[in-house]
Inverse folding.
């Protein structure tokens, strides 16, 4: 989140202890643990569906989700939670993945729904949403970034492992923002269905990208990018 110094009220400085008290309060606000963020793109879905409820996973999409779930389980990590977009294709992907991770709680959120995060630069001819969509979706997706992508809370003692199941546009924007790259370049990244992107956030706020859109665990004939 923010630098520890920004989390303490310097006006409450004790005149007797002075700098010693500030140092003590700073230590209390410093993060101690590392957060591991696994961003999963939903599996292949029915593009012909007119409403969100009709855009369900295809048979191949369900296979992809099984493969992703198996891959995550094989990592042998103690996952803390699965936060997923409330859209149908992300929810269905989550349900399949969660079968491989019994006991991990699931949380649905509208913040991670698909959208147009920011006008891409350079522009593309095949995708031109209405300008108002950038304002509506962009504010929400930026809010998702600020809400979910931050260093560990100072009270967190152990490293955490969290899964976020959402959409390509959301993941690409989050990666650019987390790495302090120009967010307008988000559309230059490409993500397969069911892919795994792994971000690491250290206690000092440094962010590293371990994997981007990994689908090496899927057979070539199961890989799609729709």
């Amino acid at each position: 989140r923010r630098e520890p110094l920004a989390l303490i009220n310097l006006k409450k400085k004790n005149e007797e202890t002075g700098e010693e008290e500030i140092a003590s309060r700073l230590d209390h606000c410093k993060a101690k643990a590392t957060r591991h963020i696994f961003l999963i793109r939903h599996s292949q879905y029915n593009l012909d569906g007119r409403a969100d409820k009709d855009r369900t996973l295809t048979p191949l999409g369900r296979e992809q989700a099984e493969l992703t779930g198996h891959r995550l389980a094989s990592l042998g990590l103690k996952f803390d939670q699965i936060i997923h977009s409330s859209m149908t294709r992300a929810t269905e992907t989550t349900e399949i993945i969660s079968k491989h991770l019994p006991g991990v709680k699931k949380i649905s959120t509208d913040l991670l729904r698909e959208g147009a995060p920011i006008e891409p630069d350079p522009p593309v001819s095949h995708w031109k949403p209405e300008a108002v969509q950038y304002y509506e979706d962009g504010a929400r997706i930026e809010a998702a970034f600020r809400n979910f992508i931050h260093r560990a809370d100072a009270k967190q003692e152990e490293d955490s492992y969290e899964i976020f199941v959402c959409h390509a546009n959301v993941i690409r924007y989050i990666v650019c923002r987390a790495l302090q790259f120009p967010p307008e370049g988000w559309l230059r990244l490409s993500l397969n269905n069911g892919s795994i992107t792994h971000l690491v956030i250290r206690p000092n706020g440094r962010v590293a990208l371990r994997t981007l859109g990994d689908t090496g665990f899927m057979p070539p004939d199961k890989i799609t990018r729709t």
Q: What stands out?
A: Residues 83 and 164 are 5 Å apart (CA to CA). The radius of gyration is 20 Å. Helices lie at 19-29, 59-74, 88-99, 131-148, 168-178. Residues 131-148 form the longest helix (18 residues).
